Amino acid sequence: MITPNDIENKQFKRAGRGYAADEVDEFLDQLTVDYEKLYRMNREQTEKIQALTKAVEYYQGLEDSLNKALVLAEK
Question: Which residues contact 10 (CB under 8 A, 6 or more apart)?
């Protein structure tokens, strides 16, 4: 996976009639900023999903326990 640092530190070979270096650098700077925001948001969402998955597992276990208790109470 490409990280924001990979984008920021990317170096291109210079060729005789290549792209304007200033424009490429400016574009990469903006790309780094936007990508870093998305990268951070993705990590936050992944952490949130993990926390919610644990909560669901906890409540599923609680539900199983309550169902067993109800079955015993019915008997």
Answer: 28
Angle at 59 (CA atoms; ends 57, 64), nearest 5 degrees: 95
Q: What angle do CA 6, 42, 22 make, to 5 degrees?
A: 35
Mean pLDDT in residue range 4-32: 84
* Residue 14 predicted with pLDDT over 80: no
Cα–Cα dist 38/19, whole Å = 27
How far is it, in rounded angstroms, from Cα 71 to Cα 13? 72
CA distance 41 to 24: 25
What pTM was estimated for this model as a whole?
A: 0.64
